[in-house]
Amino acid sequence: MVARSLWHARPVTSATASATVDRRRLWWEIGIVLALSLGQSALYSVLSLLRALLRTEALSDQSTALNPAQAEEAVWDAVYRVLDVFFDLCLVALVVYLLWEPGRNALRRIGLDFRRLPRDLGGAGLLLVVIGVPGLALYAAGRLLGVTVEVEASSLDAAWWTVPLLVLSAIRAGLLEEVILNGYLFDRLARAGWGAWAIILSTAALRATYHAYQGFGPLIGNFAMGIVFGWCYRRWGRVMPLVLAHAFIDVIAFVGYPLAAPYLP
Questions:
Q1: What is the pTM of this model?
Q2: Which residues contact 202 (CB under 8 A, 6 or more apart)?
């Protein structure tokens, strides 16, 4: 009787087994991508914040650099910066490749193209105002409260190519973060059965975590930025305005901030 009841228990069909295997492979893929990219940055960022909190000096008395020099010689510094950008863009290429399916263009599917450039520029400008100004206010508030480290401006006079390389780094950051966080993770986590707000909040938390090395002000600001960007991506279905907005914000941080820093209190 026992054997018969076990025999007539709900069988594991080939479709169920295949779905289980696909789900497992999906999570392995997500884990590997994050371990090679933003997840790795998040871990190092949290450790950096922990080390800063364990030091005897206050968090507000410590500093971090947005674009630290890679070498003493300007030429070699440029070479290493270009290589950093190249290998980060290889990660972008990897996730686009993983999103590519027969008969479906991954770039068009996530909206990483120039078909709607005027509208994308308008959306990027709106996000620049909504995110950029409050972000500066949060940084200033964090400095006043002593919970944010000082962000050191990059030197702009090292060589004639310094500013173009900083602009290139800003574009790299926009592509790397927005394509992985929104274009890739939105697709993969939705396939894993996650709801829209679970995806938005989790990707926002990841964005905040890999900015934790700057202190609690930028951590909160980037979490809010992640929620806004995630909501916009779900509503617009395009990653391009997010990439443009991110790149504009970083150009202001990398180039505009060093120019304005001597005149700031």
A1: 0.89
A2: 185, 189, 194
